[in-house]
């Protein structure tokens, strides 16, 4: 995931540099480093451990192998067919792809389409108005259910309310909301009128919100009084007030109005003339609103990711291509049968996964989905499984970090619930280690549900690499193969394809429909960041390997490769080796500056619930285990057993904070952590 990445799901981490010669050396060395010959990761690449689809599953699969052949024969024609079959166009397009001025692509040239109409109105017109669109489950236990007809009315009302406050086509709307239905309603209302939404994750600080508002020149902010986190009210509105305040240097902002959803009843400061309650604006608006088509290349949203310069990058996505690829991949990768499936993506709408696979694709495909506001352990550690049992969820899409957390808590918790409705499991946000993959399949999927491990990014907009559950014999830990119509490769530092069994850089060789169209207001940065490392190829920022079958194994970002006494080692591989030990639930590895070896491996480890911490003996056992799995050079210099790891609310581990600990520095900004006490817990455990 990410993936900045996605509530307990994450989206794949975005590429943050165009690559350097040091990165090239890192990937080159990590591909053929002698000390790691025969290590556990290499064994996994060559091990024949596969899970083919059952005959029954394959016979009823939505997508077959024929899609690969069709896409290989003519990619633009393949995507043209998907666009026309999956979407209703106000005006048909005249050209599938214009790639005349790379890296700036245009897809479905001349076409006009409305995202909200495709997600809502047309389903109602086709007689599906009574189908449930969203089952909402609040953390305190409150629930709401929206049919397609009801959700359509709510989006029309929001569109009218926004327009009454002066929002017009092309204006930007900042969205700072928790995981509640109003978030999806807001996004679709913006898309309906052609306004460009910019969602800021609700865990971000006022400074982060301010910078995004100012860069996008937002005209309207939609927020809430607050939300609930682990059973307690958590405020949101004060961060908006701070972001727009004179003292916060927000006086020059372009915001004219703020709409506030009443969610947890907390008192808020009120700015007359600027602030408006949702119920007084949207709630009182008319349900009469006509959706009109927007150009296929009309901006749909901006989503900010962190950048190496410190200035966030506003990733720009447009309409026609994005909707086409998200809808196709949602249908194909999850084998979606909208008449019978209940789908749940656990990602927060603040991340791209929450955009693509909560707000847009499920609704475009006419699916019924679950939205959950809270954390997996509130009010108890079986909360997710309780929800799955209640709504008979059949497709679950979440993050490896969440899966490893459940491993730590133990399989006896999900065993208390009926999970027999699950038929497809998805993984997103980071490479999933084989042990977590197998636990997910066994404990949650009952050893019958296929796992689709997906690789993509904020920048790609939609899934790019994943097995198709009705076609592919899946492999634990591998995302495996590019999806139909996607040209992904692993190349060396010269940009040449590496042979099977080798590693290198993950690149995308050809334009794809959901690709980012640029960085908001900075086309030069777009070219330098993503297209400068290899000629006419998008560099994803990740390292990868091909196994003997040519299937792809993600290694994580190339800047997560450590230089230990001249040997290049991937943090992902060491983390996977640690988690393969039966006592370890989760691990995070960082490289710390070392005067002797250049960098030293420091590992932070969470033990499984039934494991006994034997102190130095456990540490030595884990060091030896890594040595056996990878080689002596990979043994961590330091292993710290900790109660938790610092994670954002999207599930992303904040390794920079761990690096601060490893190098003895004061810990940096931790305001985006899901639990602000984690760093104190780590400090307390180290003192012990």
What does this structure look like?
There is one protein chain. The chain is 31% helix and 22% strand. The protein is an alpha/beta fold and 688 residues long. The protein has three domains: 21-113 and 302-556, Rossmann fold; 150-292, Rossmann fold (3-Layer(aba) Sandwich), CATH 3.40.50.980; 565-687, GMP Synthetase, Chain A, domain 3. The strands form eight sheets. It has an eight-stranded mixed beta sheet, sandwiched between helices. It has a seven-stranded mixed beta sheet with strand order 5-4-17-16-18-19-20, sandwiched between helices. Strand 28 (584-594) and strand 29 form a beta hairpin. Helix 6 (115-128) crosses helix 8 and helix 6 runs parallel beside helix 13 (352-364). 57% of the residues are buried. The model is unreliable at 1-42 (pLDDT under 50).
Question: What are the SSEs and their pairings?
Answer:
Elements: H1 21-32, H2 40-46, H3 55-59, H4 66-73, H5 75-86, E1 95-101, E2 104-109, E3 112-113, H6 115-128, E4 132-137, E5 143-147, H7 148-164, E6 172-176, H8 181-193, E7 196-199, H9 206-216, E8 220-224, E9 226-229, E10 232-235, H10 237-243, E11 257-261, E12 275-277, H11 278-281, E13 294-295, E14 299-305, E15 313-318, H12 320-333, E16 342-345, H13 352-364, E17 368-372, H14 383-391, E18 395-398, H15 400-409, E19 424-427, H16 434-444, E20 451-453, E21 488-491, E22 503-508, E23 518-519, H17 523-530, E24 538-546, E25 552-557, E26 561-564, E27 567-570, H18 571-579, E28 584-594, E29 598-607, H19 616-629, E30 638-641, H20 655-662, H21 678-687
Parallel strand pairs: 4-17, 6-7, 6-8, 7-14, 8-11, 11-12, 16-17, 16-18, 18-19, 19-20, 29-30
Antiparallel strand pairs: 1-2, 3-13, 4-5, 9-10, 14-15, 15-23, 21-22, 22-24, 24-25, 26-27, 28-29
